[in-house]
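Researcher: Quick test of sequence recovery. Tokens follow.
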């Protein structure tokens, strides 16, 4: 089973797309605990992106430290990993962190290369 096929991963992706970032963070933590190599870096980046969004929109933090930490993991991965368009996710999260108001549900979200939401 690939990292993106697990129920916890898919639940986290759906929560993330609904703007339930803390809950997505929690869902991804279980598979992160046992993941290795690039899968672990991938999950760590997602967890940090979710934490950055949660801190921005639940606590008003403008520091974006977790986004910076996530970039270290994303920089070690290709622009697409496990079917997820990481380049777009990275840009969408940055836009959401910089925006004047909380993003609508569905933005940012994990997307497959070509644009559809993950999991399709």
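Model:
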């Amino acid at each position: 089973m690939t990292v993106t096929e697990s129920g916890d991963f898919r639940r986290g992706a759906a929560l993330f797309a609904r703007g339930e970032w803390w809950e997505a963070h929690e869902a991804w933590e279980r598979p992160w605990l046992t993941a290795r190599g690039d899968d672990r870096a991938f999950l760590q980046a997602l967890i940090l992106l979710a934490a950055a969004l949660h801190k921005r929109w639940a606590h008003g933090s403008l520091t974006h430290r977790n986004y910076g930490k996530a970039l270290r993991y994303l920089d070690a991965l290709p622009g697409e990993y496990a079917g997820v368009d990481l380049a777009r996710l990275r840009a969408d999260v940055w836009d959401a962190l910089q925006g004047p108001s909380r993003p609508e549900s569905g933005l940012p979200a994990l997307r497959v290369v070509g644009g559809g939401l993950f999991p399709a």
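The chain has one domain: 3-98.
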